[in-house]
Give the backbone structure.
Amino acid sequence: MKLVTYLEKGQEKVGALTADEKAIRPLPYADMVSAIEAGLAAVKAAPLGDAVPLESVTLLAPVPRPRQDVICLGMNYVDHAREAAKFNGEAFAKDKPVAVYFSKRVPEAVAPEGFIDSHPGLVEKLDYEAELAVIIGPAAKQVHAERAGEYVFGYTVLNDVSARTLQTAHKQWYYGKSLDGFTPMGPCILTADEVSFPPALRITARVNGEQRQSAVTDQLITSIADTIAELSAGMTLLPGTIIATGTPAGVGMGFDPPRFLKPGDTVECEIEKIGVLRNTVK
């Protein structure tokens, strides 16, 4: 099942894509977080409204306004950790085999086909990061790794847009990751029952049609199960919590010379079975 949030005649709605992905069947929930709180079984059993052509509505990010900051993992693919350290060893050194966590403030996630704000005059080195995002279903507290899959509602694509100069200028990454327009998300949530756990899906990123990133999502240094177990050991992960699992090698700062984004560039982040998240820099 692929779930979407969309705008129809000025009203925000939640629905399920039809099998051919050309239409949406509305679901009886006020928003996506309400659907997630109801639970996957309830969503799959909920009555569907009449199909609405996809071309007649505007897709929004599947969770347009996350209830909390997005939790992110840094340098969670081996090759990306290497390219990051090469770009700036002081800022990106990872000398211990432990997860690097940071959060990303998201007042409103950027919709599929929406714009990435380049923040002229503030941002000098604008970068992209294609990531698999995990959506938590039931509230997770002290979850053992072997049961972590039971707490996943679904998955989506997230572009962890980064201002590298701001990111590396501080002792932490919050500011350089959290500017307005820095979290494109979508195009849908693929429900967890559609793929095995942990998902082994091809993840790629293209800039102006040129492939820059390519990996498989089971290559994570810290697995999804271990991430959920470690985080939930000391904090409650509420329904709808979004965990961005890290990006593979091939980001702009990894090239020599670096290849950062500029206004007019189009970034496509794609994950097998979920879809393509396409956004343009303005």
Q: What stands out?
A: The chain has a mean pLDDT of 95. The two ends are 33 Å apart (CA to CA).
